[in-house]
Design a protein that fits this description.
This protein is α/β, with parallel strands linked by helices and about 240 residues long. It has six helices and seven strands. Strands 3-2-1-4-5-7-6 form a seven-stranded mixed beta sheet. Keywords: Methyltransferase, S-adenosyl-L-methionine, Transferase.
Amino acid sequence: MMLLRPPGVYRPQSDTSLLTGALSRALARAGIPAGARVLELGTGSGAVALAAARAGCEVVAVDVSASAVLTARMNALVRGLPVRVLRGDLFAPVAGEVFDVIVANPPYVAGDIDPAAARGRARAWEAGPDGRALLDRICARAPQHLAPSGTLLLVHSALNGVAATLVSLRASGMRASVVARHREPFGPVMRRRAARLAARGLLGPGQRHEDLVVVRADLIAARTGPVEGGEGRAREHQPA
């Protein structure tokens, strides 16, 4: 699928395809209701959100980047797909809302830059010293935004610690497991920082690949009380 992707907006790559495939299988096989409400966090060009909309889902997509929001809106518009695209930080634009499915392909590359300070293209990958700055926030907050028996699909690198993701989600009352895996040669970003990551023990000697994983987590514990208001209000909810 050809998508508009201006400079500074994340280009769909292997992790995008991996997540889209996992979503398609979940919608087809897992008893997720027709017209399910789907939330995509970190939509970028909107590729995953568009796939969900084509499957007949009611889709909300969120991104912190104004350029990404405009791009996803345009890609949905030219295809005639009803995707609501909001600008803001993770769950902030959808405070108080719940969804049948949440999908996320957040930044997960370990580095020395504070993700909050990243700008331009770097927003798509900078994720703090262990690559979990956004992963941990999603794991902690997703259950509060899922309908009963709702599903989270989350893609990241195995270098970030798959066990940490599974433990966090299970502690939140979810049944979690790895449902897809793909070995990917390092791209330019990882090649540039491979030596530093190896020095920190995050890579093996001479390692030049990473395993990308999709973790699926299904809510099995009843949620008590209302959905909390999120981590601050979105900076912008109206069209940019």
